[in-house]
Every structure is written in structure tokens, then in C-alpha cells.
Design a protein that fits this description.
The chain has nine helices and nine strands. A six-stranded mixed sheet has the order 5-3-2-1-4-6, with helices on both faces. A three-stranded antiparallel sheet has the order 8-7-9. It has two domains: 80 residues, Nucleic acid-binding proteins (OB fold (Dihydrolipoamide Acetyltransferase, E2P)); 159 residues, Up-down Bundle (de novo design (two linked rop proteins)), CATH 1.20.1440. By secondary structure, the chain is α+β, with helices and mostly antiparallel strands.
Length: 241
């Protein structure tokens, strides 16, 4: 029986001369890898052109539980997001977000609320013309509650050190090395206010944006397995330097 799936493209890899492996974050089944026909024919090139980082598609799948790779047949775009392919800055951000989600969701169960949130964020990002260099920061910050690792910011005004292991502010330096020092915690009240209603209004220079991204990735890596080894942050560093 065919099953209708809505999915966000979070990874594209060459499998062999005839196939690619397309990983989707699906609304119904979470992270699923598909075998997709590749090649030089007109139909194959057209199909491949519609599969790019953060593309949102709908497809009918004959899902088989005993298969590691499902078969991706025909599909339709839910969102025509040409700017994510044609705008070099958006394309770099989309590549990072897709790699981040691919690592983040390796062992996560299906989460329809998170899927809806990410899909709506991608749609807004596609339409946005300002502040696009802040989108990835806003997404990483606002996904913290979905993953159950939202830091406790109750003492944000009184304490100086941020203990990344405990996710709390403290009055003194933690006994381990996973902390943010006082000179950097000045940014935390600022980023704690970022959301998708206001992220285009924030102004960061290249150094501030790199620091915020590095600290956010460090925090995710401390609390969730499999979040190390991302390659695309280097592309963003070069893009926003």
C-alpha cells in the first residue's frame, strides 16, 4: 500500500553511477533514507534539480520496514524554494542546516510539531530578503526546547559564568572546561531573545556570528550524541567573514 510522506531534504549522497541516496526528515516517519534514480537523461536531471538541501517535497512510498533504503519514485515540491538554490548565501546556510538536521535526527522518533516548525521556518527563510545570515542561529536556538536541552536562563542577570554541561549560570568558574566565560556570556541575553519574528533585525559582525555558532554547536555536541564532525560550518565561516 502506498503511503504519502512529506519530507525535507537533509542529505544527498552519490550511491553509484545510477543512484543517489536522498535522506528526508519526514513528517510521518522521522529520518528516512531513499534510493533515487540518477543519470544523464532529461527526466533524471530534472528530478535531481528538484532535490537540494532543505527542499520540501511530497511523495507516495511503498514503505518496506525490512529495507535500509526505501525507493523514492515520483514526488512533487510542497514549496518552490528557488532562492535556496540560486542565492549563494541562502544556499550555504541551507547546506549547513541540512547537515545539522541530518546529524541531529539520527536517532530521533517522528515529531510532527518539530517538522511543521522547521518547514514553516524554511518557507519564511525562502521568502526573506533581510537578515539571512542570522537564520541558522535562530533555528539552532529555537530548536533547543524541541530537543529537551533548553538552558536555564533564570540567573542570567546575576551570575557570570555559563556552565554548558549543566545548562545553567553560576557565580564561579565550573570545575570542568565546558563553560562560557564572563566576557562571552554578554551575548547570551541577546541571543536568548532571537526568534523567527525578529531574527532579521539583529546585527552581528562576522566574529560575533562565528562565536555564537561555535558555542551553539559546542552546546549541542555536549548534550546530544553524533553532533560532532560537521563540515559545513567552515563554509559559513568563509561566507560571513
Amino acid at each position: 500500500m502506498l503511503e504519502k510522506l512529506q519530507g525535507i531534504v537533509i542529505d544527498i549522497r552519490r550511491h553509484n553511477d545510477r543512484h543517489n541516496v536522498i535522506t528526508l526528515f519526514t513528517r510521518q516517519r522521522g529520518r528516512v533514507a531513499f534510493l533515487s534514480t540518477a543519470g544523464s537523461s532529461h527526466s533524471a536531471r530534472l528530478k535531481q534539480a528538484r532535490l537540494y538541501p532543505l527542499a520540501i517535497i511530497e511523495t507516495d512510498v511503498n514503505f518496506k520496514a525490512n529495507r535500509e533504503l526505501q525507493q523514492l519514485g515520483s514526488f512533487q515540491p510542497i514549496l518552490v524554494a528557488d532562492s535556496l538554490r540560486l542565492n549563494p548565501v541562502k544556499a550555504a546556510v541551507a547546506m549547513f542546516i541540512s547537515e545539522f538536521l541530518n546529524h541531529l535526527l539520527r536517532t530521533s522518533p517522528p515529531d510532527t510539531a518539530m517538522w511543521d516548525y522547521v518547514a514553516n521556518a524554511i518557507s519564511a527563510f525562502n521568502a526573506s530578503e533581510r537578515g539571512i545570515g542570522n537564520f541558522h542561529l535562530a533555528l539552532l536556538i529555537t530548536l533547543l526546547p524541541f530537543m529537551g536541552i533548553q538552558p536555564d536562563l533564570n540567573r542570567i542577570e546575576s551570575a557570570q559564568w555559563f556552565d554548558m554541561q549543566g545548562g545553567v549560570f553560576t557565580d564561579s568558574r565550573p570545575l570542568h572546561n565546558n563553560f562560557i566565560p564572563p566576557e562571552e556570556t554578554l551575548f547570551i541575553p541577546l541571543i536568548s531573545r532571537i526568534n523567527f519574528a525578529n531574527y532579521t533585525r539583529f546585527r552581528f559582525n562576522g566574529g560575533q556570528r562565528r562565536l555564537l555558532l561555535r558555542r551553539l554547536l559546542d552546546y549541542y555536541a555536549l548534550h546530544l550524541p553524533g553532533m560532532t564532525g560537521l563540515k559545513s560550518p567552515d563554509v559559513l565561516t568563509e561566507m560571513f567573514s
